[in-house]
Task: structure prediction
Amino acid sequence: MDDPGEALSLTSGGTVPHASRIGLDLVDVERFADALARHPRLEERVFTPAEAEYCRRRGKPVLHLAARFAAKEAVGKLLGTGVLCWRDIEVVGEQGSAPAVRLSGTTAQRAAELDIAEIRVSLSHVDSLAGACVVAVASSYEGAMDGRVLD
Result:
């Protein structure tokens, strides 16, 4: 690679995009379920109607809600601001397809300021724990480096 801004080539012929930031969060499912029970409007304040509907169609909705809550927290960490507006961060995707993060409002504005073109997400859960890892893909090598130069 002669150009330091060039993406690495994979043996499969694809490229590795420039990752600039990561975020990770874990949620105790029992504590999350208790919070939902204590605060009946919490689900409405945190999740979009599409997210809530998706989770309600699953066998154990609270596991899927907790994983999406973890994803929103992880995005807030990735952006360095915490969650600005819960419903500005939406985890989308249907069963059988990979989940994705869609940003809107002030959260999307913050991502644009950081030169983030896309946020990729991985969700996981077991009966007691849900988690999410998010990775920001920068629009450019400069955005990925956050203005730093490697020696």
About this structure: The domain at 19-145 is CATH 3.90.470.20 (Ribosomal Protein L22; Chain A).
